[in-house]
Specification:
- The chain has about 260 residues and is of the alpha/beta class.
- The protein has a domain of about 140 residues: P-loop containing nucleotide triphosphate hydrolases (Rossmann fold, 3-Layer(aba) Sandwich), CATH 3.40.50.300.
- About 40% of the residues lie in helices and about 25% in strands.
- The chain is built from 12 helices and 10 strands.
- A 6-stranded mixed β-sheet has the order 6-7-8-3-9-10, with helices on both faces.
- A hairpin with a 2-residue loop joins strand 9 and strand 10.
- Helix 5 runs parallel beside helix 8.
- The longest helix has 18 residues.
- The protein is globular and about 45 Å long.
- The two termini are about 35 Å apart.
- Bound molecules: adenosine-5'-diphosphate and magnesium ion (MG).
């Protein structure tokens, strides 16, 4: 097993608010890794930093052995590419470049295009794919995997239930055949049985397609049961990390996150 994603001591601030402090996380190729934490802990900020949507002020992020973000690395090259050479090298990849390397984010709250049909939403997920035939084939795969989406392919997304919209958001992310799938609270606001369905799908995507998954959740029980390795975040810091099976038995985790 090799490390696919290495987050090394990163910090992110929003003005004077320190949202992440010295956060380190390792995701091995082929695993499902989860990050649990309360609302406001910094979970979404970490995912945004991974895909280049928030700049980091300390540390670095390495993906597939290549640095994709580094604190202090010049952003000037991004703004003035023609001066790139003179301004020195920047290791910070843009969000589209990170997506191009196989990282797909399913954002919190799903962010579906409500006025578009299911099919149009899936097409949006394939923006990096040039081959029309491949796109069509990928869509059929998605309709097989999520039959409810197949049945509703011509319907506007706003007519779908919350669980169906979450499935669609996941299918949209899979359209680019990612190597690393980042999921921001896929269970948010959904009924327990629906959450179970979604987590079963995530397990299949991991097991059968070999997609590595980094999952962020407030629903600690579901996330720890679904994952191999787990991290606990409080106030922007990682306070615990262990095998998920061990975290499920951990007294602090039980008291704070599992309501036991
Ligand atoms: N765009 C933003 N501007 C200012 N503060 C933000 C912004 N996004 C998040 N925060 C703050 O950063 C902290 C972490 O937020 P977030 O990463 O969304 O946490 P979580 O996803 O764990 O709920 C919170 O205190 C939140 O209020
Ligand atoms: Mg969040």
């Amino acid at each position: 097993m090799s490390e696919l994603l290495t987050i090394d001591s990163i910090s992110v601030s929003y003005g004077s608010i320190k949202a992440l402090r010295d956060v380190s996380v390792r995701v091995e190729q082929g695993d499902i890794v989860c990050l649990i934490g309360a609302n406001g802990a910094g979970k979404s900020t970490l995912l945004k930093a991974i895909v280049g949507l928030e700049p980091i002020t300390t540390g670095s992020i390495t993906y597939q052995g290549h640095c994709i973000a580094e604190a202090g690395s010049s952003d000037a090259k991004k703004m003035f590419p023609f001066f790139g050479k003179r301004l020195g090298s920047s290791n910070n990849l843009r969000t589209d470049e990170i997506a191009g390397r196989g990282v797909a984010l399913v954002p919190e709250g799903r962010r579906v295009f409500a006025d578009m049909t299911v099919e149009e939403n899936l097409d949006m997920g394939a923006f990096l794919v040039r081959d029309e035939q491949k796109i069509a084939q990928k869509k059929e795969e998605m309709y097989d995997f999520f039959p409810i989406l197949g049945a509703r392919r011509k319907q506007k997304t706003r007519s779908l239930s919350g669980g169906e919209q979450q499935m669609m958001a996941i299918a949209r992310a899979l359209m680019s055949s990612p190597r690393l799938l980042l999921l921001d609270e896929p269970g948010l606001g959904l009924a327990p049985l629906i959450i179970q369905d979604i987590f079963e799908k995530i397990a299949i995507i991991n097991r059968e397609e070999g997609v590595t998954v980094f999952l962020v959740e407030q629903n600690a029980l579901m996330a720890l049961k679904a994952s191999k390795q787990g991290y606990v975040m409080e106030n922007g810091r990682i306070v615990l990390d262990d095998l998920s099976a061990n975290l499920l038995q951990n007294d602090k985790v039980k008291a704070a996150y599992l309501g036991e």
